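F.,

This is the one I mentioned.
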């Protein structure tokens, strides 16, 4: 179980043969994947399908991450959920025991015979989690006046009278008369 649910890949063969590549299908759970309004549940299996290619100075990881998110619709507050499919293309730089690591670097690094993709997977999912989730594209939201779910039908409120911008125009119209 623990060996299957892991984002660690063995790279010994890739290190030995420059230009070689290997495919990996990985899956596992990742904790603390959340932004303000959406999240990946702690027990959600995130799947990672990648090809690791041995390139000069490191490994190029390309493929796809897929997982499910859930959250709260920003318009009607009902549950929202969806699937993320995130394309991946990341260079992992190999560092030796005596390498100097630049403080500012936007590449991932590794050393030794294994490479753990977990940090990269986590970063990618956090970037893609919806900040303003919708239960559906055309969600009608809630009535600002009575709070009724407008997806279930009109509530009967007089919309022109609710919106403060229109209310202001009504006042001006009165004065003009
Ligand atoms: Zn909604
Ligand atoms: Zn209403």
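My design for it:
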């Amino acid at each position: 179980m623990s060996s299957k649910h892991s984002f660690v890949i063995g790279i010994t063969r890739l290190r030995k043969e420059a230009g070689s590549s290997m495919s990996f299908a990985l899956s596992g759970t990742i904790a603390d994947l959340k932004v303000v309004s959406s999240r990946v549940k702690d027990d959600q299996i995130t799947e990672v399908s990648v090809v690791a290619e041995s390139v000069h100075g490191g490994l190029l990881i390309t493929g796809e991450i897929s997982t499910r998110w859930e959250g709260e619709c920003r318009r009607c507050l009902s549950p929202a959920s969806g699937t993320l499919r995130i394309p991946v293309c990341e260079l992992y730089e190999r560092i030796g025991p005596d390498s100097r690591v630049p403080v500012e670097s936007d590449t991932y690094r590794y050393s030794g015979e294994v490479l753990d993709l977990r940090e990269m997977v986590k970063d990618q999912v956090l970037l893609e989690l919806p900040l303003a989730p919708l239960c559906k594209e055309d969600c009608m939201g809630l009535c600002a006046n009575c709070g009724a779910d407008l997806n279930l039908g009109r509530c009967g409120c007089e919309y022109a009278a609710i919106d403060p911008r229109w209310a202001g125009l009504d006042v001006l119209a009165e004065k003009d008369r």
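Residues 140-177 form one domain.

Talk soon.
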